[in-house]
Amino acid sequence: MENYIHKNLYVLPDAQNTAKATKVPEPTKTSKAKIKVEVDLVLPKKLVEAIEAMVLSNIMTNKCLKLVDIISHKAMTEHRTLSAFVPLSKNYFNKTFNHDYYNDFLKALKHRKIIECDERYEPGTSKRKGECKSYRINPELLAGEFVIVTYKEKRKDSINASWNHLPQRDDSNTDSNNDKEIEDSNSYSSPVPIPISGRFFKGGDGKGLFGSRIYEEMVIKDLCVLSYQPERIMAIAKQHAAGMGADLLVDEDVLTWSFEVVNNITGTEYFTTREKALDLCRSRQLSLIQDKRKFYIDDLDSLINEKQMGFLDCCKWQTAMLENRMFYADRNETNNRLDHNLTGISRHVLKTIKEDNDLVEIDLKNSQFAIHAFWMKREGLYELYQDVRKYYQFCASGMLYDEIGKRLNLDRKDAKDLMMALAFASFKYHSPQKEWLKEMFPNVVNHIDGFKRTNGSEAFAVELQKQESNIFIDNLYRSIKELGIFCLPKHDSFLVKRQDAGVVIDLLQAFFQSIGFECALDIEGKKYVVHGK
Prior knowledge:
Layout: E1 35-44, H1 45-52, H2 58-79, E2 86-87, H3 90-97, H4 102-111, E3 115-117, E4 134-137, E5 146-155, H5 179-185, E6 192-196, E7 199-203, H6 212-224, H7 230-242, E8 249-250, E9 258-263, E10 268-273, H8 274-284, E11 287-291, E12 294-298, H9 300-323, E13 329-331, E14 338-340, H10 347-357, E15 359-364, H11 367-378, H12 381-384, H13 386-396, H14 400-408, H15 412-424, H16 432-440, H17 442-455, H18 459-482, E16 487-489, E17 493-497, H19 501-514, E18 519-523, E19 526-530
Parallel strand pairs: 9-12
Antiparallel strand pairs: 1-5, 2-4, 3-4, 6-7, 8-11, 9-10, 11-12, 13-14, 15-17, 15-18, 16-17, 18-19
């Protein structure tokens, strides 16, 4: 079989199939001169009071607020909790706060225990990516009410200032001198020209002629027209938090053979086996806990309590942002996804917002695996292997998780978690469930592991997310907006007004048929199967 090298997965649709109703405005040029802007943000009141108690100069206070804003924003968008550690490299600090100047206020924040650092640093090598230090806000400062606070800074591009602060992204989670090699080895961008309104732009990398800035602005404008009910949202959030812990796997129920575990007692993270972890837990009266794709060694009650508090703090932050009309939209440079206020929000909270605004969600069923099946077919593997044909058919019908569940005696949710573990975990990941999958789809599992072995363990999931973004953002989203329709992209789905759902379904079906992508769409439990050309 040929090497696992990324190829363009899509062909050009016919120009007459593209939407031509309303032209979306082109981005306007802005001056490169820096201007001073005021940035509003939402932070826990205890955190703001702790920074004010430091009695710093205005400049230093602004820097402190900017840093905690960056950490909280990254923690929320990447981990859906305010208490998560986020990696920030020395290069990133220098770029964001001007060389060693940041040391003055960073040391003060750490000394006052406002910011915590894991002090873990590993230089990169030719075979392994380096690891920079990670930082988080002291969890004790996250409880309680949230308040609006403002700071000032100079910036080149003023577009986001009129809406809300978008922190700069840190794309180099390493302080090693190996950055260039790491960056090159993880570059899978492969733009595909798509005709839009009679002209071509490059999609797939988020940096084409159209650019990501206008996408972000369109999202924010649609967020502005929605109604948000804070009290109702938080009531639903508290109801959901009360039931947390029921879906955790504990001790002997953890079946995965080897994994990376977070030891919350020692504050370390390392690879281990199931038996070693269980032996350690028995000797110290702790629990081995699996929460979806993550593994922990901790006291079970403490972890559940921390999970509940983290979820509620997350919902309070999100609700405060929505209530105060502080919207953000940001194109992620790692996977090209377009993140905004509603992409990382709890599905229980999102359900409330949809009900209050008569929105429906149009979802691509088992989306990333449908894209992978399409990828394998374009490589000619569909004709060669029976298990690939079966996998393709399950994905195209939107029944992948259901069919795996039937064969392995799992419910649909557990089957989905199993496939996500296969996609996101290292190729070294081993479990009884993975062995079951290998029996069902030997060439599919080998294809995934082979790509990871060649390009890195994170590369497979990132590649699928990039292709997903190419489809949903660089192709479909713009076409929908050119029709003048309210629409919020949500990774592998769209939130639209109920009255517009039929038009959007037709547009999606036409596009998928034009590129030969067989798949299934779901809207409120009703399935639409898209057949090939």
